[in-house]
Specification:
0% helix; 261 residues; mainly beta; two-stranded antiparallel sheet
Length: 261
């Protein structure tokens, strides 16, 4: 359990392999997890930074468990970490957390999501996701999440799934390599997807906007090598300045009531 004020710092870097081997300071969890946890009784500001560690789970032995679990805390920073191979989510941010900062974190091969957040006002910058079912799963509660300058690839269902409002996905490289995986699935209103390079599977969709989603903005993205580059449904939003290179379809419109190109 994390104290309210701490600097937990090792000295490691990513090794070879997938999940990566440990070089330098590392933690091999011989239990389900979490390795780090904070869950006070009420929302509390924590002056905590966890940095420069490699943290590995064993999902074959422990098929359920998180690598890091944060609830009821604000102002925690995770930076320069490698975290891999936990049974559920490698990094789990519960809905009662707030303002959690993820920077320069490599997360790989989780049993569910490499990054999972139901916490509002989170920030992901220069994050790297490799494998898993989802790269980043934003659930209900995770409003106002920002994702910048990050790299998501290899998840088997979707690289990013958006489940709460005002998510901003800007300037990322998103590369589904699994055959049935989508790039971004949008299941929440007021999502902004701008300036991303989204290149992936020839049998799926680069961006899929679900039925009833409104006030989305999809702008200045390069979306290539998918069966359908962009699919929008009933609802309304703005689509501008994109390059859509679908193998079969560039833009698919399903029962849309109103949208703008």
């Amino acid at each position: 359990t994390l104290p309210r004020s701490a600097r937990i710092q090792g000295c490691s870097r990513r090794g070879v392999g997938n999940p990566p081997n440990t070089i330098g300071s590392g933690i091999q969890a011989a239990f389900a997890g979490p390795v780090f946890e904070a869950s006070p009784g009420a929302l509390t500001s924590y002056d905590v930074t966890i940095a420069h560690l490699t943290i590995r789970g064993d999902k074959a032995t422990f098929p359920a468990g998180h690598g890091s679990n944060l609830a009821n805390v604000a102002d925690v920073t995770l930076t320069n970490l490698v975290i891999a191979n936990f049974g559920t989510n490698n990094i789990n941010l519960a809905s009662t957390a707030n303002h959690i900062y993820i920077r320069d974190v490599y997360s790989a091969q989780a049993g569910n999501a490499n990054f999972f957040t139901a916490a509002p006002h989170g920030s992901f910058q220069k994050a790297v996701s490799d494998g898993g079912v989802f790269g980043l799963d934003i659930a209900a509660g995770g409003s106002n999440t920002s994702i910048y300058d990050s790299h998501f690839e290899g998840a088997t269902t979707a690289q990013i799934r958006v489940g709460d409002v005002r998510t901003r996905i800007v300037g990322n490289f998103i590369n589904p390599t699994a055959g049935a995986a989508d790039g971004i699935r949008v299941n929440a209103n007021r999502t902004t997807i701008q300036g991303n390079d989204i290149a992936g599977s020839t049998s799926t969709r680069g961006i899929d906007v679900a039925s009833g989603i409104i006030e989305y903005r999809i702008a200045n993205n390069l979306i290539s090598s998918f069966a359908t580059a962009l699919r929008v449904n009933d609802g309304f939003g703005t689509i501008t300045g994109n390059i859509l290179e679908g193998q079969t379809t560039g833009l698919e419109v399903v029962s849309a009531t109103s949208f703008y190109i």
